[in-house]
Amino acid sequence: HSFFNRGLAQKDLYDLTSDTSYLSKALSDYNDAICFNLNFAPAFQNRALIYDLKAEQFMGEGMRDSASFCTTLAISDYNRALDLDPKLIEIYMNRGTTYGKSGNFAKCIEDLNTFLSYRPNSASLYSNMGLAHNGLKQYDEALKDFAKSIELDSVSETAYYNRSLTYRILGDSLHDSNYYTLAANDLSKCIQLSPQKPMYYYQRGIYRRLLNQKQEACDDFGNAFNMKYEPAKYFIDNYCGK
């Protein structure tokens, strides 16, 4: 339990600082907890969360094979935790999300529907369901999911952000710039909720660029870059500088 509790603290420090070294420290602590007790279901559950976060990290770095390996480890740990303690219903939500990251959207929706039977008013569930429907190219269903998530939690920035991704897909596929406006509006809501997150400015800059709103887009790229979001430099150099 000492290793397990320290692992929880390491994960909390990662959430506060975004310092990925804390993920490795948490993983080590959960490994030690499991070595002491192979039937410690919460340790498997929380180790799976770390593997899932590492998968996201590898995806961001373009390391698909490493990301796939981590999602496989996460799903295995979730399965073990459920076998040991079927009452850990949060696993259905978390495992479903991991299935989605692995590209298995059908299994993702299956797990999320199981979680829905226990928690019908979970805003985050509907947001994750929307991403799964995105993956299946069921965009109307995805928009319904995001709307339901926002109805349940009007300050759910995750739902606004995920819905902006759907609007971007629709704008690209239908060649309809109105969807870019909707996407930018959702990012504005995200910025209102969390003004310190540079990715929101960067993404809104992308949509404003697609809308030919050059000054507004460059302001967003500048804000993102000032917050140390390096991808914004490309547009500052190659779009705003012209």
Which short descriptors sum up this protein?
242 residues, mainly alpha
Brief characterization of the structure:
This protein has helices spanning 2-17, 21-36, 41-60, 64-84, 90-102, 105-118, 123-135, 139-152, 157-174, 178-193, 198-210, 214-226, 232-240. It is mostly helical. The radius of gyration is 19 Å and the shape is globular.
Task: Write a structural description.
- The chain is mainly alpha-helical and 242 residues long.
- It is 81% helix and 0% strand.
- It contains 13 helices and no strands.
- It has helices at residues 2-17, 21-36, 41-60, 64-84, 90-102, 105-118, 123-135, 139-152, 157-174, 178-193, 198-210, 214-226, 232-240.
- Helix 3 (41-60) runs parallel beside helix 5 (90-102), helix 7 packs antiparallel against helix 8 and helix 12 runs antiparallel to helix 13.
- The model has no long low-confidence stretch (mean pLDDT 92).
Architecture blueprint of SSEs:
Elements: H1 2-17, H2 21-36, H3 41-60, H4 64-84, H5 90-102, H6 105-118, H7 123-135, H8 139-152, H9 157-174, H10 178-193, H11 198-210, H12 214-226, H13 232-240
Helix pairs in contact: 1-2, 1-3, 2-3, 3-4, 3-5, 4-5, 5-6, 5-7, 6-7, 7-8, 7-9, 8-9, 9-10, 10-11, 11-12, 12-13
